[in-house]
Write a structure and sequence with these properties.
This protein has 172 residues and is an alpha+beta fold. The protein contains seven helices and four strands. The chain folds into two domains: 57 residues; 80 residues, H-NOX domain (Alpha-Beta Complex), CATH 3.90.1520.10. It has a four-stranded antiparallel beta sheet with strand order 1-2-4-3, with helices on one face. The longest helix has 20 residues. Bound molecules: protoporphyrin IX containing FE (HEM).
Length: 172
């Protein structure tokens, strides 16, 4: 997976907990504490999963809470700072989420990444089912990322996951 995911996690930990905690997360993941990442580095998927797990261990929180924190930071701070153009194009959470498959396709072209793909189905006026598709099986990251998108647009979104279907209820 592209190092951008790890850069985001690193940014979150450095900002909220500091460098010693990040080093601890790296060593708990079995990686050298001097590990260095860039947005385009290729990081083995297993290492990314280990780092999220180690975040939970080191911070004494659940894996779910670690993914929630990651998703919130990605969608409210990290992604808006480096992929600003995609956020600028959308005025609401629903517009942004509807653009997200295209955003990931664009990532494939630019960076040679293999991001997830999404299909969309509106089940009610304010209810969208976004179906996740990726060989990685990381659908569990979706709720935190989507709630983060809601926060970015100052909206409350309700998210429930069934298999690869992610149901999102909007308030507007
Ligand atoms: C502008 C915002 C976003 C950008 C630029 C972006 C870009 C990317 C990139 C570059 C990757 C790594 C892919 C790879 O290395 O193969 C990735 C992974 C991923 N993205 Fe996004 N993303 C954004 C927002 C979101 C949001 C809001 C969601 C959830 C709805 C999401 C869901 C995921 C998931 C689950 C992965 C993990 C990889 C996988 O499951 O295959 N992304 N994204």
């Amino acid at each position: 997976m592209k190092g951008t995911i790890v850069k985001c996690l690193e940014g979150l930990i450095l900002e909220k907990f500091g460098a010693p905690t990040w080093k601890q997360i790296l060593t708990t993941s079995g990686m050298p504490e001097s590990s260095f990442f860039t947005t385009t580095t290729n990081v083995p998927d297993a290492d990314v999963v280990k780092m999220i797990g180690a975040t939970a261990t080191v911070l004494k929180i659940t894996g779910e809470q670690a993914m929630e924190a990651f998703g919130e930071y990605w969608s409210t701070k990290y992604a808006p700072s480096i992929y600003e153009v995609y956020f600028a194009k959308a005025k609401t959470a629903r517009e942004f989420l509807m653009s997200l498959d295209g955003v990931h396709v664009a990532m494939t072209k630019n960076a040679g990444a293999q991001p997830p793909r999404f299909t969309y189905k509106w089940t009610h006026e304010r209810e969208l089912v976004m179906t996740y598709s990726s060989a990685r099986g990381l659908v569990a990251l979706m709720p935190g990322l989507i709630r983060g998108v809601g926060k970015y647009y100052r909206e409350t979104v309700d998210v429930t996951v069934t298999g690869n279907d992610v149901k999102i209820q909007f308030t507007r």
